[in-house]
Every structure is written in structure tokens, then in C-alpha cells.
Amino acid sequence: MNRREFTDKITQLLREMIDAGAQPIFDFALRSAEEQRRLFATGKSRCDGQINKSRHQQGLALDIYLVKDDKAQYEWNKAEAEK
Questions:
Q1: How many domains does the chain have?
Q2: What is the pTM for the complete model shown?
Q3: Rounded Cα distance, 83 and 72, in Å
Q4: Number of other residues whose CB lies within 10 A of the CB of residue 14
Q5: CATH number of the domain that residue 22 is part of
Q6: Residue 20's domain spans which residues?
Q7: What's the rounded Cα separation, in Å, for the pair 37 and 47?
Q8: Quick check: 57 pLDDT over 70?
Q9: In this model, does residue 68 exceed pLDDT 90?
């Protein structure tokens, strides 16, 4: 997948989430190797940024947070998100 295809898919996802009543926040679309290493060191990623690179480092991934009661939900709750 190239960046244009990724952008098209994310745009469609955003439309669908808003149409379903969600309030998404997109974050961390592009990460440096240093930021990726920091996340790996704190256990927040399985990618170390050097040997095992994240798609974030290529601009082909992003984090999505959902807003509930005017607060971003940083912990993913699959059952809650599927409502």
C-alpha cells in the first residue's frame, strides 16, 4: 500500500466513524526512529524502530483515539468501540 492508498482508506474510515456517531482523534501518523525506540522501551510497541520498524515510521499507520464524555479514550476497549 502506498501513502495515497493509505490516505484514501483513512479518509473513508473517518467518514464511517463520524457517521456512526464516534468522535475520533487521529494521532502519531509519522514517527521518528527515536520516538519509536522510546515507545518500544516503555512497552508500548513491539517495534524497536531499527530492526523491527513500525509502519508509523513510513507514514503508513496512525493511532486512533475515541472521545467519550469529552475525554479521549487512550485504552482500547473493543466491545465499547463496536457499540
A1: 1
A2: 0.61
A3: 17
A4: 14
A5: 3.30.1380.10
A6: 3-75
A7: 8
A8: yes
A9: no
